[in-house]
Amino acid sequence: MVASAASAADPATKLIVADQAELVRNLLDASGERKNLAFDIEFPNFAGGPAILEAIRAGAVDIAYVGDTPPIQARSSGTLLPIVATFTREIAQYRLTSRPGLNINALSELKGKKLSYVEGSGRQVFLIEALNRAGLTLKDVTLVNLRVADLPDALRSGAVDVAPLQEPFVTRLTNQSGASPVLDPEERKLLPSTSYFYARPDVLADPKKTESIKQFLAAFVKAGNWSNEHQQEWAKFYYTAFQRVSPEDSAAILAGQSPLLFQTSVEAIPHHQKLIDILYQAGSIKERLDAKGSFVDTFDKVVEQSR
Description:
Layout: H1 2-7, E1 14-20, H2 23-31, E2 40-42, E3 45-46, H3 49-57, E4 63-66, H4 70-76, E5 83-89, E6 95-98, E7 114-117, H5 122-133, E8 142-145, H6 151-157, E9 162-165, H7 169-177, E10 180-181, E11 193-199, H8 201-204, H9 207-229, H10 231-242, H11 247-255, E12 261-263, H12 265-281, H13 300-306
Parallel strand pairs: 1-2, 1-3, 1-4, 7-8
Antiparallel strand pairs: 4-11, 5-11, 5-12, 6-9, 6-10
């Protein structure tokens, strides 16, 4: 039972969860689920998967909220960080966004453009799949290697023509500087917005940490369900109050989202294999990995019983 797993967590245990855009912390706070965590928890905030991987390797983080590409890139480079939970939205939260003064109406118009490229971030596979759908490859564009934190300014200044952004940056740049999302309807169908929690293997070997992760994941799934059922309250808490997005723009962000869905390892493996294959065929990883090796099923029952 989830309750017995939660009650087994040691109050003296500290769990350090790498966050991005402070989403995880805000979701737990807004839903009230954080108060149900019977142990110490911290949420250091990071800008993208590469920075998180550095922290994981340094032992500074126990588990991490990352996009769909970081676990694959880490494993390809020889670092296996087991995926402990998967959550997804059917509609991608990345938006291909063009610089002010440039309108992209079809994915084929990406040819010859300067595109931001953040290897090891979920933006990587999203961009590659966009090119695939247009019959293009990475060789048909100019790749500009950037950090995730630098993407909005690079787009605003015209240092790149197109970058995959997430909200609230898409809405902010559209309103403030005249940037615009790529208008090809196919762009909204590229890939679902899949994210993971992955963990350091030594953390999973610690029974006290493992019990804390079980309690944390149960709370996170419940918090995600709460956000699905209380969209307006969540938007006001996170986008309007925390991100300082106007109520009108918060409503627009909600309108472009689909509900959070939570998957077991078995359910998540087929899509993860698809992501691996996209990266392998593009030459971004050297070996076609077996997706099954990226997951542990330790927490599947927690996900099943909480969703």
